[in-house]
Amino acid sequence: MNTNRRHFLKLTAAMGGAAMTPFAWAKRADAQGLETMVVASGQTINSLDLHRTGTNRASYQVAINCYDRLVGFGSRQLPTGEMSYDYDTIVPELAESWTISDDGLTLTFTLKADATFTDGSSVTAEDVKWSFDRAVTVGGFPTTQMQAGGFFRPDQFEAVDARTFVVRLDYPSKLSLPNLAVPVPFIINSTVALANATEADPWAMEYLHTTTAGSGAYSVTRWDQGQQLVYERNDAWVGGPMPEIRRVIMREVPHNSTRRALIERGDVQVSFDIPDRDAAELVGTVDVFSTPIENCIHCACLNTRFEPFQDPEVRKAIAHAIPYEAIFQTAAYGRGAPMWGGPAEITDTAWPRPFPYVTDMDRARAHLEASSFASGFPVQMSISLDLASWMEPAALLIQESLGQLGITTTVERIPGANWRTVALVEKSLDFHLENFGGWLNTPDYYFFWAYQRDRLFNSSNYDNEEVHELTERTLHMPMDDPEWAPLVQRMFQIVIEDLPRIPLYQPALNVAVNGAAGYEFWFHRQLDPRRMTGV
Questions:
Q1: Do 51 and 203 touch, CB atoms closer than 8 A?
Q2: What is the CATH number of the domain that holds 28?
Q3: Same structural domain for residues 525 and 499?
Q4: Angle at 270 between CA 264 and CA 274, to 5 degrees
Q5: Across the 535 residues of the chain, what is the mean pLDDT of every consecutive 10-residue run?
Q6: What is the maximal distance between C-alpha atoms in the chain?
Q7: Bridge pairing between strands 157-161 and 106-111
Q8: Is position 340 within any domain?
Q9: Is the domain of 346 the same as that of 303?
Q10: Contact 59, 178 (CB under 8 A)
Q11: What is the domain range of residue 257?
Q12: Containing H/E element for 492?
């Protein structure tokens, strides 16, 4: 089995083993021990199906809460006392147990006998196979995510009998089992899906876009697009401990000031992904959780299809002109970790890591004067309205600083529901801010998504053959292999020099809670209410 010893021991241990308004609901629930939890979020949910092209990150929560995976991640307490998922511990979800062959190529899962979908039908290995076949076939983000774990083709998956599901790998990978715990390989009721499929839509994309068909802790009973989504508990759920909260209402509240007022008054129990400023100012008034997001960096991205950004001197000029400290204090309120001013010499494999660039306008001018665009140029800088709390102040500060070089920027504000399509799918934005975070906590996995050609989160259209090959070599290699660290350090050297993405800072995920307990941070940056309770 390809993994380190500590991970192996934890895996082994695991293997043993609506006429009423939402706010009126919340007030009524207070007297009943928080039967209903109301959550305010500025993010827009644009689909109930994570496999659908263009589904945005806010929508991932549906896969987490309404569907099961074969396995999940455990929990741990951080040094701050906050709770977090535990990447090093894999726990059962739909699978009650699993085995891995000595050569690491065959994973055999035994499903829980009493697992049922929300319509009461049993979850079978055929449902698992159909769901995995779908994930590796539909293309785009879900298919690429499956590939990161070594899952490429339907012929790798077999339903041996109703409760036995087998995965056969082409090669051992340190990412295979953890990759089954991320949101993408969720298990769908294939009978329901096929009944709503068509010849033109064999994977029932249109049906599952608006209807859930899972075995998870909750199901969606109402979705008013752009307004709210309502979850109801599945009382037959066997994927984990039964949630205490029966109903969860996700309210889309676009204005930060409104969300802040709601959480301060106790009209909502959770305000999710709040701005850093509010997080700093709400401490002491309500419970505030600020957790650094593993494997995540806020970046300024330079699209290599834009002619000036094809010039390395221009890219370095921008890297030295960015006002890092001002952005960190103004946009992040000092929360998170700086990603600038790092050492030039690379002696470790820590990631995220500060790049060795600092704000230095003289050096910025020198680089620009050495380029083919010494007098500057105009460029549009794009931001997402869903992420405006940090993107807008950062963009305005960058705009002001680049203006001193003769680089004239116009800030374009794009609705959150459209951002993923134009920034990541079409990759049509010349200069933009971006905040990719890797689900699997290794640097090679981050490179797989953000620096390999044609990957979804490579919004800069970066294409370096050596980086591509190094990522392919290291992705599945055990981290204790003596070749791994030197290869990863070489990857660092190349992208620090090439600069398709200029790191700004590592962000924190801020969540305010008032009248609830049990909040836990998750790598996917969505709320998991399954462990939350009343106070």
A1: yes
A2: 3.40.190.10
A3: no
A4: 80
A5: 36 36 36 80 94 91 97 94 94 97 97 97 98 97 94 98 98 96 98 98 97 98 96 97 96 94 97 94 95 94 97 98 97 94 96 97 98 97 93 98 98 92 95 94 95 93 97 95 98 98 96 96 94 91
A6: 70
A7: unpaired
A8: yes
A9: yes
A10: no
A11: 22-42+217-292+508-535
A12: helix 484-498
